[in-house]
Write a structure and sequence with these properties.
30% helix; alpha+beta; four-stranded antiparallel beta sheet; single chain
Protein backbone atom coordinates (compact mmCIF):
# COMPACT_ATOMS: atom_id res chain seq x y z
CA UNK A 1 0.00 0.00 0.00
CA UNK A 2 1.15 3.54 -0.67
CA UNK A 3 0.49 6.86 1.01
CA UNK A 4 -0.41 10.09 -0.79
CA UNK A 5 2.50 12.52 -1.14
CA UNK A 6 1.25 14.85 1.61
CA UNK A 7 0.69 11.95 4.02
CA UNK A 8 4.06 10.42 3.09
CA UNK A 9 5.77 13.73 3.94
CA UNK A 10 3.95 13.84 7.30
CA UNK A 11 4.95 10.21 7.92
CA UNK A 12 8.63 10.92 7.20
CA UNK A 13 8.54 13.99 9.48
CA UNK A 14 6.87 11.90 12.19
CA UNK A 15 9.54 9.19 11.78
CA UNK A 16 12.35 11.75 12.00
CA UNK A 17 10.87 13.38 15.12
CA UNK A 18 10.14 10.02 16.74
CA UNK A 19 13.70 8.83 16.09
CA UNK A 20 15.04 12.07 17.62
CA UNK A 21 12.87 11.57 20.70
CA UNK A 22 13.25 7.79 21.13
CA UNK A 23 16.34 6.81 19.14
CA UNK A 24 14.44 4.30 17.00
CA UNK A 25 10.83 3.70 15.95
CA UNK A 26 11.16 0.34 17.74
CA UNK A 27 11.79 2.12 21.05
CA UNK A 28 8.69 4.26 20.53
CA UNK A 29 6.48 1.23 19.84
CA UNK A 30 7.95 -0.63 22.84
CA UNK A 31 7.23 2.42 25.00
CA UNK A 32 3.59 2.47 23.90
CA UNK A 33 3.11 -1.25 24.43
CA UNK A 34 4.92 -1.38 27.76
CA UNK A 35 3.43 1.94 28.96
CA UNK A 36 6.84 3.11 30.10
CA UNK A 37 9.93 4.79 28.70
CA UNK A 38 12.69 3.23 30.80
CA UNK A 39 13.85 -0.36 30.58
CA UNK A 40 12.50 -1.33 27.17
CA UNK A 41 12.08 -5.08 27.41
CA UNK A 42 9.93 -7.26 25.21
CA UNK A 43 8.58 -10.34 26.91
CA UNK A 44 5.21 -12.02 26.81
CA UNK A 45 3.17 -12.55 29.92
CA UNK A 46 1.22 -15.35 28.29
CA UNK A 47 2.50 -17.54 25.43
CA UNK A 48 -1.04 -17.80 24.04
CA UNK A 49 -1.69 -14.99 21.54
CA UNK A 50 -4.11 -12.32 22.82
CA UNK A 51 -4.64 -14.09 26.16
CA UNK A 52 -3.21 -11.16 28.14
CA UNK A 53 -3.98 -7.52 27.22
CA UNK A 54 -0.44 -6.54 28.24
CA UNK A 55 0.91 -8.64 25.35
CA UNK A 56 -0.66 -6.51 22.62
CA UNK A 57 -1.73 -2.97 21.83
CA UNK A 58 -4.32 -1.73 19.32
CA UNK A 59 -3.30 1.53 17.62
CA UNK A 60 -5.05 3.76 15.08
CA UNK A 61 -3.03 4.44 11.95
CA UNK A 62 -3.05 8.22 11.88
CA UNK A 63 -1.24 8.34 8.52
CA UNK A 64 -3.49 6.28 6.25
CA UNK A 65 -2.60 4.69 2.94
CA UNK A 66 -3.99 6.33 -0.19
CA UNK A 67 -5.09 3.00 -1.64
CA UNK A 68 -7.77 2.63 1.03
CA UNK A 69 -11.21 3.62 -0.17
CA UNK A 70 -13.25 6.25 1.62
CA UNK A 71 -14.80 5.11 4.88
CA UNK A 72 -12.05 2.61 5.74
CA UNK A 73 -10.24 3.01 9.03
CA UNK A 74 -6.89 1.28 9.58
CA UNK A 75 -5.72 -0.07 12.92
CA UNK A 76 -2.54 -1.93 13.77
CA UNK A 77 -2.36 -4.52 16.50
CA UNK A 78 1.18 -4.88 17.83
CA UNK A 79 1.63 -8.31 19.38
CA UNK A 80 4.67 -9.18 21.51
CA UNK A 81 4.49 -12.83 20.51
CA UNK A 82 5.83 -13.90 17.12
CA UNK A 83 3.31 -16.00 15.22
CA UNK A 84 4.51 -19.07 13.30
CA UNK A 85 4.44 -18.85 9.51
CA UNK A 86 5.18 -21.29 6.72
CA UNK A 87 8.92 -20.87 6.05
CA UNK A 88 8.46 -21.21 2.30
CA UNK A 89 5.44 -19.00 1.71
CA UNK A 90 5.53 -16.72 4.75
CA UNK A 91 1.80 -17.29 5.20
CA UNK A 92 0.24 -17.69 8.60
CA UNK A 93 -0.09 -21.27 9.74
CA UNK A 94 -3.56 -22.67 10.57
CA UNK A 95 -2.83 -22.65 14.30
CA UNK A 96 -3.12 -18.87 14.12
CA UNK A 97 -6.88 -19.05 14.34
CA UNK A 98 -6.52 -17.00 17.57
CA UNK A 99 -6.19 -13.98 15.26
CA UNK A 100 -9.60 -14.72 13.75
CA UNK A 101 -11.08 -15.26 17.21
CA UNK A 102 -9.52 -12.06 18.57
CA UNK A 103 -10.67 -9.92 15.64
CA UNK A 104 -14.15 -11.40 15.89
CA UNK A 105 -14.39 -10.88 19.63
CA UNK A 106 -12.79 -7.43 19.66
CA UNK A 107 -14.34 -5.84 16.57
CA UNK A 108 -17.11 -7.86 14.90
CA UNK A 109 -19.05 -8.74 18.05
CA UNK A 110 -18.79 -5.17 19.29
CA UNK A 111 -20.19 -3.84 16.02
CA UNK A 112 -23.06 -6.34 16.23
CA UNK A 113 -23.72 -5.30 19.82
CA UNK A 114 -23.89 -1.67 18.65
CA UNK A 115 -26.47 -2.66 16.02
CA UNK A 116 -24.22 -2.30 12.98
CA UNK A 117 -25.58 -4.41 10.11
CA UNK A 118 -23.29 -6.84 8.27
CA UNK A 119 -20.62 -6.42 10.96
CA UNK A 120 -18.44 -9.30 9.78
CA UNK A 121 -18.32 -7.87 6.24
CA UNK A 122 -17.03 -4.56 7.63
CA UNK A 123 -13.93 -6.02 9.31
CA UNK A 124 -10.90 -7.71 7.78
CA UNK A 125 -7.34 -8.31 8.91
CA UNK A 126 -3.94 -9.13 7.46
CA UNK A 127 -0.44 -9.66 8.74
CA UNK A 128 2.61 -7.95 7.26
CA UNK A 129 5.31 -10.20 5.90
CA UNK A 130 8.63 -10.00 7.71
CA UNK A 131 10.22 -7.97 4.93
CA UNK A 132 7.58 -5.23 5.29
CA UNK A 133 7.67 -4.84 9.08
CA UNK A 134 9.07 -1.60 10.48
CA UNK A 135 9.39 -3.07 13.99
CA UNK A 136 10.49 -6.65 13.50
CA UNK A 137 10.29 -7.69 17.15
CA UNK A 138 6.56 -6.93 17.36
CA UNK A 139 4.12 -8.84 15.20
CA UNK A 140 1.96 -6.37 13.22
CA UNK A 141 -1.60 -7.33 12.42
CA UNK A 142 -3.57 -4.83 10.37
CA UNK A 143 -7.30 -4.45 10.84
CA UNK A 144 -9.46 -2.56 8.37
CA UNK A 145 -12.88 -1.32 9.44
CA UNK A 146 -15.36 -0.21 6.75
CA UNK A 147 -18.06 2.41 7.30
CA UNK A 148 -18.26 2.29 11.07
CA UNK A 149 -19.19 5.15 13.38
CA UNK A 150 -16.31 6.91 15.12
Amino acid sequence: MKRRTQIRIKYKLWCRQTEEDYGFITNYIFTIINNRRQGIVICCINPIPFADPDDYKILWNGLPYSSLEAGVKHLAIRLKLRLPVDPETGKILPENSPINDFVDKTFVRRLRFEGIEHASARVCWSKSGYGLQNVGQLEPIHVLLKDIPA
